[in-house]
């Protein structure tokens, strides 16, 4: 071999080696990045872990906090609010009634016609619209004028001059925010949640605000009851099945109410009702316990929210927040590794990933996870390999399973408080030997998250059986109540008239 040829050969070897070295280096780097992603996922799984032992601690904490909230005003983060609802609709109601429901994302209007028998419940003209986002931080006047205007349009559609002054319509106002009631038809807003911020309304009577707006429009409608959405769901549940004693909503936010004995509401001594009971609105979104599995993502979400240090439980289990927890995990993965490609500014936007998209990704059953790819593309993350899309699905699973399981612990906590969990309640004082009859107990559930996100619903129902055990679970029936909050509130107004 000539001298020149030797030089060329040597150079070729050096070049080949350096190409190989670069490739090996890249592969190592890519492996390291992949390892980072796997570690973030593992850390998330550990932090969100909810073995049944931990859930039982949450159950106990919920029952204890319920007691504390009933014992004294401000005794717990659970407000345990009086609703002044002591009798629930029983099926004998008659007539036509209306409901207007301001939820967290939607407002709904409907009419029910009742024929005096349980089987004769005719729900008519259900209208459901997204709440225009500018209303969430507008003024009281703008918000209520809008609601009154929407009601007017609804009534106009009934036709035949039915807006005539002679016909007075009885209306339920279903209001999904914490209210301190002074009667069934009046109460003041305690605080906003779920991103609403109209500060001037805090402390004002909500029913009065709506009645004023209706009067200004000349609508002959009477706000006969101001009803928390959970109480509406309980009313519909009870109407169909009198074993219904608990209602829970999993929508944009989350809350629960239940039927309590008045003598257990210690903070209101001397409270007398004909039934000896009253529905208590727990406002359980604000529940907190050190046993809740909290992650750095929850801490950051809370700190950056408009209501930080508030609604800690809601922020782990409700529809408004699950998407943002998932987004935060994906964002961290993309920042600490480049497997999601160049950084996306969209992914940094709070609440850009909705829980609807989380369920669409979680329930994507295409072999290539095309729905996941599509949603990631909308977030400015394109062309991620299949294994990364699988990681995203896993993140959705971890966050939603935790939510469903904690929701189940919350429900079991209520059952424990009222002695329906098979243990006799925490202060029942019954002897261990006493044979206890487990009563059939129906839990009415509603809300977009529960109705539409199968994996959430299944995680919740599975965990409830795990916590209560097979035997007791047979007596606990979870019933879905589509539009229960609104329909039930109208039924409640009907029961007030009869
Ligand atoms: P509101 O909270 O206004 O009363 P809903 O009870 O209908 O309204 O709940 C709406 C919320 O439910 C949405 O904001 C979303 O968080 C959740 N949701 C609705 N559809 C789905 C879905 N397909 N998958 C997951 N979550 C959903
Ligand atoms: Mg709702």
UniProtKB/TrEMBL annotation:
One MF annotation (Gene Ontology) recorded for this entry: hexokinase activity
Enzyme class: transferase
PANTHER family: HEXOKINASE (PTHR19443), HEXOKINASE-3 (PTHR19443:SF73)
Coiled coil: none
Family to which this protein belongs: Belongs to the hexokinase family.
Swiss-Prot/TrEMBL keywords: ATP-binding, Glycolysis, Kinase, Membrane, Mitochondrion, Mitochondrion outer membrane, Nucleotide-binding, Transferase
Organism in which the protein naturally occurs: Eutrema salsugineum
GO BP field: glycolytic process; hexose metabolic process; intracellular glucose homeostasis; response to cold; response to salt stress; root hair cell development
The protein's name in its UniProt record: Phosphotransferase
């Amino acid at each position: 071999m000539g001298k020149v040829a030797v030089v060329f050969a040597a150079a070729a070897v050096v070049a080949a080696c350096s190409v190989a070295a670069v490739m090996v280096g890249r592969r190592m780097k890519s492996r390291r990045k992949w390892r980072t992603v796997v570690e973030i996922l593992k850390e998330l799984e550990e932090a969100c872990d909810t073995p049944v032992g931990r859930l039982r601690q949450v159950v106990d904490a919920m029952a204890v906090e319920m007691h504390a909230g009933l014992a004294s005003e401000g005794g717990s983060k659970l407000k345990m609010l009086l609703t002044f609802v002591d009798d629930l609709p029983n099926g004998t109601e008659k007539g036509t009634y209306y409901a207007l429901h301001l939820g967290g994302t939607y407002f709904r209007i409907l009419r029910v016609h009742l024929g005096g028998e349980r089987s004769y419940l005719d729900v008519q003209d259900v209208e459901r619209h997204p709440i225009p986002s500018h209303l969430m931080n507008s003024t009281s006047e703008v918000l209520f004028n809008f609601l009154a205007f929407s009601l007017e349009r609804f009534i106009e559609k009934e036709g035949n001059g039915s807006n005539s002054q002679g016909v007075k319509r009885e209306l339920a106002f279903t209001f999904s925010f914490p209210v301190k009631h002074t009667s069934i038809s009046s109460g003041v807003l305690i605080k906003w949640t779920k991103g609403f911020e109209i500060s001037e309304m805090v402390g004002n009577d909500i029913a009065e605000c709506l009645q004023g707006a209706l009067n200004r429009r000349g609508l002959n409608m009477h706000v006969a009851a101001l009803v928390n959405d959970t109480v509406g769901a309980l009313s519909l549940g009870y109407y169909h099945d009198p074993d219904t004693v608990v209602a829970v909503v999993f929508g944009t936010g989350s809350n629960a109410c239940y039927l309590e004995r008045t003598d257990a509401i210690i903070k209101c001594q001397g409270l007398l009702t004909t039934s000896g009971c009253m529905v208590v609105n727990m406002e359980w979104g604000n529940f907190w316990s050190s046993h809740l599995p909290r992650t750095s993502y929850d801490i950051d979400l809370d700190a950056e929210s408009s209501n930080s240090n508030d609604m800690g439980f809601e922020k782990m289990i409700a529809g408004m927040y699950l998407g943002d927890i998932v987004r935060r995990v994906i964002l961290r993965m993309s920042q600490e590794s480049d497997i999601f490609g160049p950084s996306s500014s969209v992914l940094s936007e709070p609440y850009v990933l909705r829980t609807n998209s989380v369920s669409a990704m979680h329930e994507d059953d295409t072999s290539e996870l095309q729905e996941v790819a599509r949603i990631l593309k909308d977030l400015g993350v394109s062309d991620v390999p299949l294994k990364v899309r699988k990681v995203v699905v896993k993140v959705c699973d971890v966050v939603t399973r935790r939510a469903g399981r904690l929701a189940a612990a919350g429900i079991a906590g209520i059952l424990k408080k009222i002695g329906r969990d098979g243990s006799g309640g925490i202060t029942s004082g019954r002897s261990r030997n006493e044979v206890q009859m487990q009563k059939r107990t129906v839990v009415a559930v509603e809300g977009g998250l529960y109705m539409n996100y199968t994996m959430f619903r299944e995680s919740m129902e599975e965990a409830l059986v795990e916590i209560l055990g097979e035997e007791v679970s047979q007596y606990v029936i979870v019933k879905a109540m589509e539009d229960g909050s609104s329909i039930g509130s109208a039924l409640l107004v009907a029961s007030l008239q009869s």
